[in-house]
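Proteins fold reproducibly. Look at a sample protein:
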Amino acid sequence: MAQYLKSRSKLLGNNDDVYEVIMIADENGTIVDSDNPLPVSIGGQSINITGPVTIPGEVEVKNDSGDPLHVDITGGTVEVTQGTTPWVVSAITAPILPAGYGQIHKFGAVPAMSQDTNGTIWDENDTVYPWTTIDAGSTLTIKVVEPNNENATSALLSGDTVEIQGLDANFNLLTETVTISGSGITTVGVFKRVFRAIYQDSGITANSKRILIQAGTTTVAKILEEVGQTMMSIYTIPAGKTGYLQRLDVTAQGTATGSFKLYAREGGTGTFVVKHICEVNGVGGPYQLEYPVAQAFPEKTDIDARMHTLSNNGRYTCTFDILLVDN
């Protein structure tokens, strides 16, 4: 760049006493320095930073739904130094559903179904869940038995508790915690449905014995040894609610194969009808379905996940998530 010095009244060629200085200013003409840093906006672009970066002030990071923040860290690590000013960290709170909304996460597993057999995915092999028995409504008997002999009772879990979750005669939620006395105990409440039972004691280990929950002499829930709770892929929508089925997962063990059907019956009476069907193969991995539009089930609808084993049999699981909305 040519330079002209007014005091010398001529253009300068080579010199060693006159220098050109370039300074950067912001849009208001204020010189950029440590007290007035250059504002930077990165939109839709990539930026690579090498070496240390000092940020003297505050950094605001936005992650709008229509313009999400994308960060990729490759080939190294990010080190953050607190400095002399303590950080202020906002607590991350769990999602809170609005009033009138709830959710249920149901999961179950059948230990080892026989070949070419139909049954509910729950803790009892080769059986469809006894809906007729539980529908009669009754108090429930909790019985502790030996893992390999359900006819032999055990008092080893005496003093421990079992929480039973289900519905009462009016299909309203009913939860009762009972304390095992000797080898068993009976509930006070009358249950018309049971969809979960949880074993609890003063330690951190799961139950060493098998726990049966029975209506009369029929088992309507079972906590297998070393599991700690029931594994029942069944559910009934409580009174005053509508259930919206949002996700469904089904797995088969190893090389096991099967034909899965999700059954439901509205009102808690009548015949179960198929609501979804799929084929599963353990080698092929889990079957997963997220409904584009959640499937609605009215109050008192019974849901029963069943498997029909094919050429190879084994263990099967099913998980589903339901959003509950007050009517």
